[in-house]
Amino acid sequence: MSKESLFAISLFPYLGFLWFLTRSGQTPRLALIGFYLTLLFVAVTIPAGIYAKVAYEANLADIDWLHGGAEFFLTLSNIFVVLGFRQAVVEKQRSLP
To answer: pTM for this structure?
Structure first.
């Protein structure tokens, strides 16, 4: 199985994860936004990878400015997840006696 096929198939479990996470209603909103932003990372990475192949005849990882631009969205999603869970922990600590 090619890495591209594996990547495409891996989206289905992640979408299921998002569905259950959203439905549970227990995930901090900011963290949930971060998990959804991971899909934005995927949406940006795919065309960036195609552009790297067509324009530079190279892998995305070999074109620093393009790879860094795509990875920014992963960093952004991670920041939202961390801040969301941090906010939930702080709120929980405040509610304790």
So the answer is: 0.86
- Give the total number of structural domains in the chain: 1
CA 76 vs. chain centroid, Å, equals: 8
Question: In whole angstroms, what is the distance from residue 39 CA to residue 58 CA?
Answer: 24
What one-character DSSP code corresponds to residue 62?
A: G
Quickly list H helices, 1-97.
3-24, 29-56, 64-95
Q: Would residue 86 count as lying in a domain?
A: yes
CA distance to 9, 28, 44, 60, per residue, from 48 (Å): 19, 31, 6, 7
User: Per-residue pLDDT tens for 10-60?
Assistant: 999 999 999 999 999 999 999 999 999 999 999 999 899 999 999 999 999
Long-range contacts, 13-21 (Cβ 8 Å, 24+) = 14/38, 14/39
